[in-house]
Specification:
Blueprint (H helix, E strand, L loop, with lengths): L3 E4 L6 E3 L4 E2 L12 E5 L2 E6 L3 E10 L2 H17 L3 E5 L3 E15 L3 E10 L4 E9 L24 E8 L7 E6 L2 E2 L2 E4 L2 E4 L3 E2 L4 E5 L6 E5 L5 E3 L23 E7 L4 E10 L6
Antiparallel strand pairs: 1-2, 1-7, 3-6, 4-5, 6-9, 7-8, 8-9, 10-21, 11-20, 12-17, 12-21, 13-16, 14-15, 14-20, 17-18, 18-19
Length: 275
Amino acid sequence: MRSLEYVSTATGGSIGFEGPLYGETLTGLRGRAWDYSLSSRGLTGVTRKTREETVTVKIHDSPATLDLLARLADADMAAGSPGTLVADGEWETRAWIAKSDPQSITPTMVETQLTVVLLDGVWRRETTAHHDPRTDKSDSWLDHPYDYPHDYSGMSILDTVANPGGTPLPIRLTVFGPCVNPYIVIGSNRYEVDATIPAGSRLEIDATADARTVVMISGTGLRTNLFAKAVRGTGRGSGTYIFEPLPTGTSTISWAGGFEFDLTVIEERSEAPWT
């Protein structure tokens, strides 16, 4: 981790820890912790829970920086909405800065200990690939009894997506209208929502553990919950689970091609990057 900043959700403001607010090594934020219970021959209840960490920061000849930190942290605490810690401009985790406990105060320096609440227990990095509608006009185009702005062609493999890590990863799909009952096949799973997405609207399928949402957002920002319209099969591994994580290795992407969509792969790790 070469850089770190705190971005306030409530105000949109941010503050870095490389100066004039110095976090030095930020030791407390570099570790990782899994929660679990011991069983007779293993572990149960393995998860990553919210945890508290403390870090010491220093400020030299710029007390206004501490005022800025207090405004950002207090705004998020009061709003009940966590801010975001951003490492190296790409890895993120949700957090509150719940406490500042001054350790020493001199005319030229203030040293204070911050209590940081890490909400998720994971750091995430998102990589998005955009897929445009197909432009080839094969003989396999299918007509509809209604006058939609497009027809659907037969399924074909259009691309691949890689998960080089050792565990399956959550994904986010953003489908742009117009389309009817859109579905996308990634690897052996079919992601499908039985709904009409008008022109100018988009469908967002978020499979991160703290979200699990299926929402249509209109051009004016109106949000409609379509969770009940999503095909969930019999759950993970059933082949038609809307929140199926991306398996390790390389998976093919296939779809009918009548609409555009974004595929976002969300990498997760328990600790901030060391390199």
